[in-house]
Amino acid sequence: MGKTTLCHHLLEKDDQLAFSISATTRPPRATEVDGKDYFFVSQDEFERMKKEGELAEWAYVHGHYYGTPKRWMDEQLNRGISILLDIDVQGGTQIMRAYPGSVSIFIIPPSFKILEERLRNRGSETEEVLRLRLENALGEMDYITKYTYVVVNDTVGAAVEKMHSIVRAERLRRDRILEGITWRQLLGLDERGVKS
Amino acid sequence: MGKTTLCHHLLEKDDQLAFSISATTRPPRATEVDGKDYFFVSQDEFERMKKEGELAEWAYVHGHYYGTPKRWMDEQLNRGISILLDIDVQGGTQIMRAYPGSVSIFIIPPSFKILEERLRNRGSETEEVLRLRLENALGEMDYITKYTYVVVNDTVGAAVEKMHSIVRAERLRRDRILEGITWRQLLGLDERGVKS
Fold first, then answer.
1. Predicted confidence band at B129 (pLDDT cuts at 50, 70, 90)?
2. Whose CA, among A163, B11, B34, B50, lies 20 to 30 Å from A16?
3. Which residue from B88, B86, B83, B63 is spatially nearest to B143, judged by alpha carbons?
4. Where are the beta strands (DSSP E) in chain A?
């Protein structure tokens, strides 16, 4: 029920979306595959990528570094593919600055109680890690004012449907549709433009 | 295949939307019902409504007056119901000014050729009326830059699905969700706010 789950379901519904793959210094969990879920890198390698400007955004979360390789992102965007980034508020604000056309969705739990329950039910966390994650979640909430959309994560199905509506609606914004093209070209009235 | 058809299909899909009913001086078509499709009023009555500020917007289109009664609109909005307005660019720009939170969608045909064919296939128009409508449609296109969204009216199903995505996405905007409420209230952390 975390935002990563929502992202995976959204990707299944939309074939013009590619999932971003982050580089991270965090050790892999049992089910995670290197090069698919993350690029698992050493601290030294991550430092090098940061220093050489290879990351579109990076963040330090729960004791580990996460970052998105810029070259891969720009390749997708140049091919007309949108990229779905599963990132926290630190990474999110960097992406908003670096890519002004990006769309931001803040995922929130239905209530604080449910957030606590969900973190507890993951089971793999110690009480100390749980407390750290809860404090983190509340600290991140203040960033909500920087985001354009808010989706309450009540059920996976409903939340994914909402995220999908946002993605589809954003593709219909006039400033995206008429980017570098006039309405005359769109209607096939100008031969020097796009043909109808 | 006109925008009125799209509006009727959208209303069927979304039960939080009410269709606006316009007052008009245009004579009813065979299938139109007074008080349901329009309020059919005399020129004098329309002038009175305009003069007494009873109209949220009004326009003069194809030789007739059209206007939306303001009181009915505000009643719906106060009940949390969104209103779908099937209006032209004159009315649209008035609504954008009067209701800054309104959402604007510009419906365009896939091409100028198809627009001409569609107007011709309506059958009920004389050649002169057809020419007038075509000129009107092109003149209206310049207003596209005032609109937030553009939906190409290729097939009814696809266009309605796009409009529905826009309506659903707009309800998820952070500025609407956190209007007069903090995220602490939204999460049930502040007892003086909304209860979770």
1. confident
2. B11
3. B88
4. 17-19, 22-24, 38-40, 55-61, 64-69, 82-84, 105-108, 149-152
Percent of chain A with pLDDT over 90: 63
* Whole-angstrom distance, CA of residue B147 vs CA of residue A152: 28
Contact A187 B151 (CB under 8 A): no
Which secondary structure element, helix H or strand E, spans residue B65, and what is its range? strand B64-69
Which residues, 6+ apart, have CB-to-CB distance to A196 below 8 Å?
A: A187, A188, B110, B111, B112, B113
Asked whether residue A165 is assigned to any structural domain, the reply reads: yes
Residue of B nearest to A110 (CA): B187
**Listed residue (A68, A12, A1) closest to A38, CA to CA:** A68
CB contact under 8 A, B147 and A174: yes
| Residue numbers of the domain that contains B153 | 3-186
CB A35 within 8 A of CB A21: yes
Taking residue A146's Cβ as centre, other Cβ atoms within 10 Å add up to: 13
Q: Which residue, A79, A150, A148, A164, is CA-closest to A109?
A: A150
User: What pLDDT does residue B56 have?
Assistant: 94
Picking from A109, A147, A188, the nearest residue to B111 by CB comes out as A188
The pTM for the full model equals 0.86
- The helix (H) or strand (E) run that includes residue A43 is helix A43-51
Residue A184 in any domain: the answer is no
Q: Is residue A20 part of a domain?
A: yes
B47: closest CA of chain A, how far (Å): 35
Q: Name the domain count of chain A.
A: 1
CATH assignment of the domain containing A146 = 3.40.50.300
pLDDT tens column, B114-126: 888 888 887 666 8
Q: Structure tokens of A139?
A: 């600290």
Separation of alpha carbons A121 and A133, rounded Å: 13
